[in-house]
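Thread amino acids onto this structure.
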């Protein structure tokens, strides 16, 4: 289990229930990461990613570039998605650079409310699996369990 998730709940019974739940989530998130797609509310979102630099001890930073559909032509849209993957990552020293794909027949996907849970799920899985640093870990005065450092 990732250090961020340990010691959050108090009683042994709750700790066991929490651990069991999180183990299921870790397995589900690892499967989604292997396929580079996430699921939420019956919808799914595919993405590509690049890893830039060495992974810090408590996880990478994460950068998400939202590629929106700009053409009705599938092949042109596919080329633009690949272009987005190469476009901005060179400005990073470290981190996961992620480009979700708007594969729906709609422009402006990322302005739709139902798309946000998919981005939330992507970030949630990155934190659960320890790929990226959680906000509590980014605070230099705390370790990943939230205890004063």
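Threaded sequence (149 positions):
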């Amino acid at each position: 289990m990732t250090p961020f998730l340990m010691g959050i709940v108090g009683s042994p019974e709750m700790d066991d229930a929490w651990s069991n739940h999180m183990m299921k989530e870790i397995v589900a998130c690892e499967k989604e990461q292997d396929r580079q797609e996430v699921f939420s509310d019956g919808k799914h979102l595919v993405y590509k990613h690049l890893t830039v630099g060495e992974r810090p001890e408590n996880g990478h930073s994460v950068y998400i570039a939202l590629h929106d559909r700009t053409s009705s032509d599938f092949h042109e849209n596919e080329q633009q998605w690949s272009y987005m993957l190469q476009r901005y990552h060179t400005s990073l020293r470290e981190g996961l650079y992620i480009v979700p794909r708007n594969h729906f027949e709609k422009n402006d996907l990322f302005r739709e409310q139902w798309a946000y849970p998919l981005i939330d799920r992507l970030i949630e899985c990155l934190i659960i699996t320890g790929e990226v640093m959680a906000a509590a870990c980014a605070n230099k005065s705390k370790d990943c369990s939230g205890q004063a450092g």
